[in-house]
Write a structure and sequence with these properties.
395 residues; alpha+beta; 27% strand
Length: 395
């Protein structure tokens, strides 16, 4: 643990944090709504308003931009009972099969709603009706977005742990509907701050006080989007399992028989929690919840290791841990700095789609995940280390 500012504690040295990100950490820590301190995760890097890789506990208010536009973004991992040696030699066929089942890249959605997606849509419609949320007002396409991956750093991977057991790992969030919910309330919070005459170091730190008439509608819409993200990951994982059901040598029967463990966790979300004797709102912006014994997933970048972990319940971190590797270079800088040849070299031995659109996701554009995990020793215990066999991404 490293003191950064009077109300900010880092789980990495200040020297390892970008100067611009340190400015953001200071700005957040000085807000009047902050409870005790900001906890800065080992993968922190520059964000919009608040640093990605930070845990922000607040009294009687939330910061919509600190949650971000991909509400509920997170990870899901399934362990199978099959070894990697039971996979066929042609991994490209598996990659293409997964790509055929799950729409990826921005703006690509489902043409057909599957029975499992229909059941999840019904559950989300019931939740929306109960809470008075109208998701169609934000994005009428949300039903066909359920079960779609998106682009950027969202991915699907087939991995193997050190015992050679196959794991299926997936990263995605609330898609376009979550983005539009976020944009509405980020703008509303800024207007509220302007009307109140409150001057902020960064307008993206505009917050909604709990006594604001917008607070409850935002929290309900936020909760709905977080549930959409969770259902979205479950739907895609079920489709991956369907694809894999015919791929393992000796595997027969229902795809559910391929699953021996499932972990589904957010890393962009808000919820009410009890810390240091008080009930507060906890925003994890690029951070996972890590209560003692709680299972979670910390992915590396494309082409590197990922980790299945259990939390240690570190109180100073508000029982949190990092969400992944964290970027070293912006997408623009990565495209300027690296070539397709670099990508091919760094992805050696992994089945992936080799194309220019994935260059900004090259492993070197991200921080060293092993260094992140070294700084996380007081936050989590590593249960399984995963190496990638197949990588599926949108662009």
């Amino acid at each position: 643990m490293y003191p950064l500012f009077p109300k900010a504690i880092g789980f990495l040295p200040a020297a390892d944090i970008e100067p611009q990100a340190l400015v953001q950490i200071r700005n957040v820590s000085e807000l009047p709504i902050i409870f005790r301190h900001v906890a800065v995760m080992p993968d922190c890097h520059l964000g919009i308003g608040a640093t990605i890789g930070s845990v922000i506990a607040t009294r009687d208010a939330v910061i919509p931009a600190a949650v971000g536009v991909d509400i509920g973004c997170g990870m899901i991992a399934v362990r199978t009972p099959f070894p990697a040696s039971s996979l066929p030699a042609d991994l490209a066929a598996i990659r293409r099969g997964i790509e055929g089942r799950i729409p990826s890249s921005v703006g690509n959605y489902n043409d057909v709603i599957t029975p499992t997606a229909a059941a999840r849509i019904a559950a989300l419609e019931t939740l929306a009706a109960a809470d008075g949320v109208k998701p169609d007002h934000y994005d009428s396409k949300w039903r066909v977005q359920l079960g779609s991956l998106g682009g950027g750093n969202h991915f699907i991977e087939v991995c193997a742990d050190l015992r050679d057991d196959v794991w299926l790992v997936l990263h995605s969030g609330s898609r376009g509907v979550g983005n539009k919910i976020a944009q509405k309330y980020i703008a509303a919070a800024k207007r509220l701050m302007d009307q109140s005459g409150l001057t902020l170091a960064d307008r993206n730190l505009a917050y909604l006080p709990q006594d604001s008439p917008l607070f409850d509608p935002y929290l309900k819409a936020l909760h709905w989007a977080q549930e959409f993200a969770r259902h979205n990951r479950d739907e895609m994982m079920d489709r991956v399992l369907e694809e894999m059901s015919g791929r393992f040598e000796g595997a027969v029967g229902h795809p559910g028989e391929l699953e021996s463990e499932r972990i589904n966790c957010h890393h962009n979300f808000v919820q009410r929690e009890h810390h240091f004797g008080e009930d507060v709102w906890v925003t994890r912006k690029g951070a996972i919840q890590a209560r003692a014994g709680m299972k979670a997933v910390i992915p590396g970048s494309m082409g590197t290791r990922s980790y299945i972990v259990s939390g240690l319940g570190n109180s100073m971190a508000f029982e949190s841990a990092p969400h992944g590797a964290g970027r070293r270079f912006s997408r623009t800088e990565a495209r300027r700095r690296f070539t397709l040849g670099d990508l091919s070299e760094q992805m050696s031995g992994i089945e992936y789609r080799h194309e220019k659109g994935l260059l900004d996701e090259i492993p070197s554009a991200y921080k060293d995940i092993d260094q992140v995990m070294e700084h996380s020793r007081d936050l989590v215990t590593i249960e399984h280390t995963l190496r990638q066999l197949i990588n599926v991404k949108g662009n």
